[in-house]
Specification:
Length: 173
C-alpha cells in the first residue's frame, strides 16, 4: 500500500516503433508504471489514444512536433475519478521537450482535481531527462504538491527495475 493513503499511476505509453529500442509490444513508460504499481500498490489509469497506432518513428515525431507547436489536445479513451487518491504519479515519454500532447488533454480536464494532493512526475526518454515535464505539471496542477521528478532512459527500462525501486525508496515507499 502507498505510504500516504491511496496512490494512482496515470501514464501514457507508446508501443510500436520507438527510438533506440525499435519496435516494442509494451511501451517503455508502461513498464515503469508497472514497476511503480508493483512496488507501491498503486492503481493505474493509462491514457489511451489510437491516434498514433501503427505509426513509424519519424512520422510520429513529426506529428508530435506539430501537435506541440499548435497546442493540440488529442482525445483519449475513458477517464478516472481522482478524488479518492492522495498521491498521483504522472508519467510519459518526452516528446519535443515535454509530455505528449494527449497528456495535456488529461491535465486540462483534471486541472482542479489534484489540489492539495501529492503529484510525482516521471519520464522515459533517450537523452531529454525530465525536460520541461515537472514545470508543466506544476503549471497544470497549481494547487498540488509537485515533487521532484524521476527519469529513466527508455532503453534501460527493461533492466531498470532497481533504479525505479531506489527512486521510490527515496520517496518513502
Amino acid at each position: 500500500m502507498a505510504k500516504d493513503g491511496k496512490a494512482l499511476v496515470v501514464f501514457f505509453s507508446h508501443a510500436g516503433d520507438n527510438y533506440a529500442v525499435g519496435n516494442i509490444e509494451v511501451g517503455n513508460t508502461k513498464i515503469v508504471a508497472d514497476y511503480i504499481t508493483e512496488i507501491t500498490g498503486a492503481e493505474q489509469f493509462e491514457i489511451v489514444t489510437h491516434k498514433y497506432d501503427g505509426m513509424a518513428y519519424t512520422p510520429l515525431i513529426n506529428l508530435a512536433k506539430e501537435e506541440t507547436k499548435n497546442g493540440e489536445l488529442p482525445e483519449y479513451e475513458g477517464d478516472v475519478d481522482l478524488s479518492g487518491y492522495d498521491t498521483v504519479f504522472i508519467g510519459g515519454p518526452v516528446w519535443w521537450g515535454t509530455y505528449p500532447q494527449v497528456m495535456f488533454t488529461f491535465f486540462k480536464k483534471h486541472a482542479d482535481d489534484l489540489k492539495g494532493k501529492t503529484v510525482i512526475p516521471f519520464t522515459t526518454h533517450e537523452g531529454s531527462g525530465l525536460a520541461n515535464c515537472v514545470e508543466d505539471v506544476k503549471e497544470a496542477f497549481s494547487g498540488a504538491n509537485v515533487t521532484k521528478g524521476f527519469s529513466i532512459y527508455g532503453h534501460e527500462v527493461r533492466t531498470g527495475r532497481a533504479k525505479v525501486e531506489k527512486w521510490l525508496k527515496g520517496l518513502g515507499y
